[in-house]
TrEMBL record:
Keywords: Oxidoreductase. The keyword Oxidoreductase applies. InterPro entries: NAD(P)-bd_dom_sf (IPR036291), SDR_fam (IPR002347). The keyword Oxidoreductase applies. One of its GO terms (molecular function) is oxidoreductase activity. This is Short-chain dehydrogenase. Belongs to the short-chain dehydrogenases/reductases (SDR) family. It comes from the Eukaryota.
């Protein structure tokens, strides 16, 4: 109850920020002379909190690489950002995060540009009401939200580590998760069932993928620390935001409940604040393997904190990718 009241009132936490804080506010402390050196990749940037994250980072001088399935929508976003920030450096490349082959093509294109990579924001999210499969024959929400981001991160990780070594600037990876990861029960978190569920429930599938995002951050953080790599990875809950994916959740939110809940929903600027805070704010330097909400480190579920479960998920995912025999992937043991 106390936490709920704190959220509703927008009371600041230890970071000095809270639920009402905007992405603009958390990046005001960032020096333009510093941020203008940075290059960031943001998935799911053509709408919602991804678009706001892109707008704010561009305003701070960060070079943006925007992977998009719909390049027309991406071009519209680019035009809108450049109207506000004419100096913005924005590169658009095609990707379908549910397709391993498409992710490979994107990474090859990006790496061929010879650019550094300081920030990777795994923001794109898919909620599917009915059972659908990716072209690789995996359940679509899990394929997009988790498998796609896992593969993308792995293929770009060496570039991030190299950039950090060459520039002395900490690399930062942000996995956008959700508080709904708490809904997942241990006996329902089975890798093979998430790939090809027998009894499909859209909300459960989405929650499972968001739990996997946190476990990914926990395990990769452990591995990066073991390598003494100057790259951090964290997971964030953006809050319940007025975006298209929220409206897609009619499996558990009726129209009337949505109307009432909408009075408590965050704006996209508030929803993107935690992402921007973890990606750019000086206060999060050196912080890795954590879970943030309302721009403050907070507790995630016991299952999300389970190091054995995180390692097991990593191994299953690595084995799956290896079976597909994709070249150019470096996966750390």
């Amino acid at each position: 109850m106390k936490a709920t009241l704190k959220y509703l009132a927008g009371i600041a936490g230890p970071s000095g920020y809270g639920s009402k804080t905007t992405a603009e506010q958390v990046t005001q402390v960032c020096s333009v002379s510093f941020t203008s050196q940075l290059t960031a990749i943001i998935t799911g940037a053509t709408s919602g909190i991804g678009a706001e994250t892109a707008r704010v980072l561009a305003r701070r001088g960060v070079r943006l690489v925007i992977p998009a399935r719909d390049l027309k929508k991406a071009a519209i976003l680019k035009e809108a950002i450049k109207k506000q920030s004419p100096w913005a450096d924005i590169i658009l490349l095609e990707i379908d995060l549910s397709s391993f082959a498409s992710i490979q093509r994107f990474c090859a294109q990006f790496l061929s540009l010879g650019l550094p990579l300081h920030i990777l924001i795994n923001n794109a999210g898919k909620f599917s009401q009915k059972l659908e499969f990716s072209e690789d024959k995996f359940e679509l929400s899990f394929a997009t939200n988790y498998l796609g981001h896992f593969l993308l991160t792995e293929m770009l990780l060496d570039k991030m580590v190299e950039t950090a070594e060459q520039t002395g600037i900490e690399g930062r990876i942000v996995n956008v998760s959700s508080v709904v990861h708490n809904w997942v029960k241990r006996d329902k978190f089975c890798f093979s069932q998430m790939l090809n569920p027998k009894n499909y429930n859209g909300t459960r599938a989405y929650a499972q993928s968001k739990l996997a995002n946190i476990l990914h951050a926990k395990e990769l953080s452990r591995q990066l620390k073991a390598r003494n790599a100057n790259v951090a990875i964290n997971a964030v809950h953006p809050g319940i935001v007025k975006t298209g994916i929220t409206r897609d959740h009619k499996g558990f939110i009726t129209d009337s409940l949505y109307f009432m809940a909408s009075k408590l929903l965050k704006s996209t600027s508030q929803g993107s604040a935690s992402t921007c805070y973890v990606a750019l704010n000086p206060q999060t330097r050196g912080v890795s393997g954590k879970y943030f909400a309302d721009c403050n480190e907070c507790h995630c579920s016991d299952l999300a904190n389970d190091e054995i479960e995180a390692r097991k998920l990593w191994k299953h995912t690595r084995a799956l990718i290896h079976r597909r025999s994709f070249p150019g992937i470096t996966i750390f043991s």
